[in-house]
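Entry 14. Ran structure prediction on the chain below.
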Amino acid sequence: MRDTEGSAVAGLENGRVDLPAGTSASQLFHQILRAAVEQFPDELTAAELPEDPHAFRANYATSLPRFEAARVASSQRTAIARHLAAESRRRFVWAVGEEETPLIDAMSAPHPPLDLDTFACSGTPGWNPQLPIGDGSAGTGAAIEDYAAGLVARSSATAGVAESVTWLLSDGVDAGGTLDFSTRRIAILGGAAELAPATQWLAAGAHVLWIDVKSPPAELRRSGAGGRLSWIPGGADLLTQPRRIAATIAEFAGNGSVDIGLYAYAPGKGREWRLTAAMNAIIDSLPADAVDTVTLLVSPTTPGQLTSHELKIEQQRRLDRPIWQGTLDRLGLLGSGGGHVTVGDAGVSRSVVSIQGSGYQAAQYLEKMMAAETWATWGPAHAATPHPRHVSANVAGVSKTRSLQHPVFDAAFGGATAFEVETFAPGVTRALNAILTARDWLDPTAAGNPAAPSTLTETERAVGLLTSARVHGGLYVLPYPADPTLRISAAIGAARHPNRIPAMIRRGG
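Output, structure tokens:
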């Protein structure tokens, strides 16, 4: 999605989703975390969150993992998640000129839905899950299982990824090996995002509602899929039309319910956070019975709770590291303190990459991780009583999407293999996560499914939701903090490909 403030589209509602005036993303992020510390002082003492917002801005790549470790170690982890999600929702505003209204209040005002165009695809419903394999061919069945097993064997993914793939390909598909979603209505917020699985859902026969500032490409309508595609002529902007988009989704659901995928992204000026806040506000404004599932993808460059297996792999990689890594580590060039932070029995990855910015981290941590945990264990953060939602929130591997087109990232991708860190083509990530999402929707034992065994505690549900299926590419078993490691990876990549150096210098890499 792109920002269209000041455009004719923005004039439809004459306002925008925004941070409070005079507040930067870093300041607001710090305020929300500090509010949690004040609300849960005993539980979050170990977070050691800086009181000075400038100190936080300079060191959030270190501060955020420690905060998350303190939260995870607490018996109040889900309550803290709910508080964080609610604070973020409370502090965002609907700005019209100089006038600001709390976004949560603005979303309650009724607005008419937007007009839709609809195209019925001519193919036969039925998605046969496929995955682009290394040679460019489309792998199916056993080839997908082998690929997932390889990720697990290389410690680039959790065992839950392979288990999810196996479940879908054995228990989820029909006798012909296909999935039929003809009865599902799926709204994709950020339809043009490179990781949004519109092609897969249309192939499965679903009725897809495409929400984006861009209309769906003509080739999507000519793809021969078996579903139906609806979109808003001329596009719609989540930042300027969230109330009308919410009304459009509600109308699209009709008398039933809709699956909602949250994929919109745009960098700079806090837009990544503003977009996720807008999408979440839309979700929380909809009637509970209008939402069947909520799907989002979490970045592995957000601090994640580590399993005992991942901690063992990290330790082993440190013991088995090559001599050059040990030398760089002793020189302090790979940071200090190792690849994770520990509070009590909780280990959390130090995988934050500061070059992505504090607004990106706020979007990932507050609006994805904390929101997903809150939806799965409680429901909307501001709800007075619990009404858990069906949530899919898997970690997606670092992918070479347009959003990561930065000279430092380009070079770092080239050098990451020296640290046993994998990056992925967008098509692979999109297809694999469509498979993982479908399993989360269909399997009654999936951690984010309210139908999962009632013997699970809130904490067990939260842990399972965010740790079971993760394609982290090795970032969660890296024996060093990701931030300094990225710089060394970039140097290695630049040495391998010197032609990248001028661009790095121009961008201040």
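The two ends are 26 Å apart (CA to CA). Will compare against last week's run tomorrow.
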